[in-house]
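Sanity check record (used in CI):
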Amino acid sequence: MKIKLLYLFAICFLFLNSTARAQDSKLKYQDWVYRPNIKTVQFENITNQDYATIPVFSLASAEELVLQFDDLNGSTQDYFYTIEHCTADWKPSNLSTIDYLDGYTEDRIIQYKYSFNTIQQYTHYTLAFPTSTMKPTISGNYLLKVYLNNDPMDLVLTRRFYVLRQSVNILTEVKRGTVIKDRSQTQKVNFTIQHPALNVSNPMSEIKTVLTQNDRPDNAMNNMKPTFIRNNELVYNDMDSGTFLGGSEFRNFDTRSLRFFSQRIQDIVKEKKQTDVYLFPDDNYSATAYSTIVDLNGGYAIRNQDGGGDAEVDADYTRTHFALKDTPPTTVGDYYLFGKLTDYQIKDDYKLAFNEVTQRLETQQLFKQGYYDFCYAFVPKGQSVADVCPVEGCHFETDNAYTIYVYFRPVGKRYDELVGIKRFNAKAFFIMR
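Expected output for Type 9 secretion system plug protein N-terminal domain-containing protein:
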């Protein structure tokens, strides 16, 4: 009887475990990490500085994207990958792989290195893409999927990327918002698409646009409609579209060296199994005037000034402690750590909790040594778009990085072709005061 009960218990445990894994591994068509042992996922163009911070490369070019991530389990795993073509709004395009892929439909990540002289042991994986065995053949949006042991259901991470066939010219401008009451807080983006190389019959349905601020997916503006249609030219300057809250320049912290305290670090506590970095408590900037500072527009760079010159494997991980002052908790929403270091995601992992003793909102996160931008964001209950203004303040002068993506899908075509990208900074259009 006991044996039967143990057997039934084991079956139930395996079933529940597999169900939980299936739920955790449910495919998301966005940048996502499905396992807690996977950290510091980077996916960038290393050959074209115009797109250095976004994963895009030109079709049939020598440009290359590099995927990097760390596995904190410290052992080697059989990580496989594949890609899927997507629509302009990041849904499956339902094309067959033979329609968009030359070579294998999946392959194994074979390049890895073990961490060296670090408290936190990890294995660093690298994939340069496209490869000689897998190349996209058409432009558009793609999703890279990494999974374990040749099992596509056992997802590890997903990353969006873009394949470009530049066929249009994009003219841009950034100015103060047009709504009088919000002019001190907002930035208005106008742009013009020149398309003499494309035969556009119906611009309203054949051309799609996406406008992003600092590569954030949550507040991206999709499928804006042209205000004026001219000969081989589409003008987007409607008063009611293209307006973003300016926000403020990002905060930062610097852990490139754990021997010396950088400007934002209050204390470093080294123990046998962990290093804790305590940042000075942050002020609430919601009521302060604009202050200019050079930042990475929300990004980060992995560096180690104490190591042997290979930060990929000699940069250690630290438990970094954040504290936000003068911001009482509220029942109408929550505060989060926010930036590229969180993949611009609103997840419970990055939520700030109120400490009754210190009377501050706090969180602690594991980050690899480097230089990081970050900010604090408020998310009202039931919403998914982060609002940085309640903590960071909002100013029209802020230097934000904007990117415009242009897609073309004429009648009869089965997919959205990416025909233009333009990246530009607001600072180039403003005289800083």
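The mean pLDDT is 91. If this sentence no longer matches the regenerated tokens, the check is flagged for review.
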